[in-house]
Write a structure and sequence with these properties.
Elements lengths: L8 H5 L3 E6 L3 H19 L6 E6 L8 H4 L11 H13 L4 E3 L8
Parallel strand pairs: 1-2, 2-3
Helix pairs in contact: 2-4
């Protein structure tokens, strides 16, 4: 028996698929790091927009986060969502965004 899951062409072809990740810790960061692969695959297979990802996390990076999550010691004290989204955007040319967006005047 073959099971096939499919989304309507109308759903996929008209706009970007929006994803909200709540929490940029262990699980949220792992999910975020995999989404650029899905985004690129969607574009290659003809989707006009791919993914638009928003990451929400009010927490800041602590020294213990650096041991078990994708943060460096230089990230300590910065907002987790902002650090991860900027990292993924710079590397992949992705268009993720942290929420709330960073203040232009700093923290």
């Amino acid at each position: 028996m073959r099971i096939e899951h499919a989304l309507s062409d109308k759903f996929l072809k008209r706009r970007a698929v929006r994803i909200l990740i709540v929490g940029a810790g262990g699980t949220g960061s792992a999910i975020l790091m995999g989404l650029p692969y899905l985004h690129q695959a969607m574009l290659v297979w003809g989707h006009p927009c791919g993914l638009v990802v928003t990451v929400m996390d009010p927490d800041t990076v602590s020294p213990t986060n650096c041991a078990r999550q994708p943060f460096a010691t230089s990230d300590i004290g910065q907002n987790k969502a902002t650090v991860l989204v900027n990292r993924v955007n710079l590397f992949w040319g992705f268009r993720g965004r942290p929420h709330p967006p960073p203040s232009p005047n700093g923290p």
